[in-house]
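Allow me, if you will, to draw on your knowledge of protein folds for a short while. I have a record of one protein: its chain in single-letter code and its fold written as discrete structure tokens. I remain grateful for any guidance, and I place the record below:
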Amino acid sequence: MDAPQGSRTGRWLLPLLKLRIWLAKFARHNELQTTLVWAGLVGFLAGASSVGYRKLTDVIHYFLTGHALEYVKTVQAMPSWQRLVTPAAGGALAGLTLLLGARLNRRKSSTDYMEAIVLGSGQLSSLSSFVKCASALFTIASGGSIGREGQLVQLAAVLASLTGRWAKMTTARLRLLVACGAAGGIASAYNAPIGGALFVAEIVLGTLAMESFGPLVFSSVVATLTVRQFLGSNPLYEIPHTTVQIASNWEILPHLLLGLLAGLLGPWFLRGLRWSERAFAATALPPYARLALGGLIVGALSIKTPEVVGNGYSVVGELLGGGRWWKMVALILALKLVATAATFGSGAVGGVFTPTLFAGASIGYLFGEGVDALWPGANAPVLSVFTLVGMGAFLSATTHAPIMAIIMLFEMTLDYEIILPLMLACVVAHYVSTAIESASIYSDSLKRKGAAFVRQQLADLRVADLMKKDPVAVGEISPFAEVAENFLTNRFNYLYVVGPGRRFKGAISLHDVKNYLNEPELANVVIARDIVREQFPTLGPDESLGDALNVFSQHDGERLPVTNNFEDRTLVGSISKTDLILALAEQSNPLSSTHEAATAGVQTTLAPGQHAEDDPAP
């Protein structure tokens, strides 16, 4: 038996093990680096799925309307009867898709990626998620007053969840990977990599700890690069002329007042959406009839005002050019709010993030017209500046995330001149809106599911909640060849050694085997018990995360073994330092004292068809 083993060890095992030790010494690989690789993959999937979803939406838009134009131009090219019928037909198809999906998948499962990240295990229902994405295609393509960014995020999140489950990730890392998918989805929707990462960090995770923020950034960047490869790198909103520089400090005053106005109006915008939701629910109509009714309202409004269809992107572009009469803008804004409330309230799956930007742009434009009328001839900022600042301020007022709003508006325009007035307006809007309404546009879903108890649940976590069961181990009489093979087939730097009944005997360091690499004959007679480190730190299942972190601080490894108790010392699992740090980062939640109130389903806002009481497709 010894000869074949020695032959096998000498020919290929020891050289490979030498390479493995060299890589461990100079590359200093850890699991956080591995997480970045997975985040990059998820970012690519987010970008690719974003491009594919947009193309598919355009195809269905042509199928439903017979035109391949931008949505407002499509409506302008259609006769009145078709303007009325098309959104209603799209709503009916969207509702029937949800109904069919509910019958195909009767198992109650969540598609809310916010819940999966904050409260859940990171697992999303793939079938229900894909059904919702399919339903949104009909609403969006038929001209519903809602955006597609919600489904881009949902699609990226479910692909991230499937990837993490395939890789058998621990709960903490799976949740982080789903968050990376969400960040990539936002970044791909708005060509805003920093904004995408900050969106998830500020609103979803509530922390800027590098253990989580680094992967978010990596995923967002890869997603953005992927989209730019196919769709170009131009900013989302291009300003047709140069913005004026602020020559006097007094000129900043109107922007402060604009932030105040946005902060006052933001809560009423949210209340209008919630009122519409309750009104449609009171009809007790089936989903397809309810969505058809919402589409019918949008279609009726579009007969005289085509600008109410779609997410409002093209109209914002016109406002930035200053080519609209203020009375027409006021009318479009009023009707657009009604159309958005009708689409949202009917239960359509989609996003209101872009319609929120439209509302802010219109408010800023009208405010700028008022400033020009009251302050004629002054060196006041041009109208496009007020339009952009209004977008950011209203976004801050409705999301309660001013940092994200500032960065995202800058990335969507790449105009640095707006930074000072934008920062001022966003902060003022945030404080004013939170004084009126503590709940943000993201607050309902998880609040009803118990988000108020998240911090307490995190504080009660123990080692057993994060450990991975049945870690790889070798018997104490295992030959050196088995030890070497385990080091080659796994990434860890310590291999656990167990006796009968999996009683923990210690660990073998990767560097402990170096003495035998140049002596194959000696390696053939060595067993695990000969090179084990018997004095090796362990943790108990009931120890707190703080105690575990203290033990890790005195140990150079990425993982520690978990034994049932200090007497019997039966090996029951292992805990990763990365998982521990991620859990502690969630506990600390340093960004906002109102995180529990603001923490709720981005899916509720970005894809409002998913409500708290009906996680599966309704």
User: Anything to note?
Assistant: Confidence is low (pLDDT under 50) at residues 1-10, 448-458, 589-618. Residues 461-585 form a domain with the CBS-domain fold (CATH 3.10.580.10). The longest helix spans residues 31-65. Residues 214 and 417 are 28 Å apart (CA to CA).
